[in-house]
Write a structure and sequence with these properties.
The chain is mainly α. The protein has one helix and no strands.
Length: 60
């Protein structure tokens, strides 16, 4: 019976730590969201430009 309590306490601790990590990661994301969105848009734009140039080169 004691093993069940120990298992419960360990699992509750793991769940709590996981929740804390999630909250911290969410906070970091909220702070950097604009920066991350801009970087993503830049990467997508570069990818589309690369595809356009590649298509132009294929038609020659």
């Amino acid at each position: 019976m004691a093993a069940a309590w120990i298992t419960d306490v360990v699992l509750a601790g793991v769940a709590t730590v996981d929740l804390m990590i999630t909250v911290v990661a969410w906070g970091v994301y909220r702070r950097r969201r604009a920066e991350l969105d801009a970087a993503g848009a830049e990467a997508v734009g570069e990818f589309h430009a690369h595809l356009t140039v590649a298509r132009r080169d294929d038609t020659d």
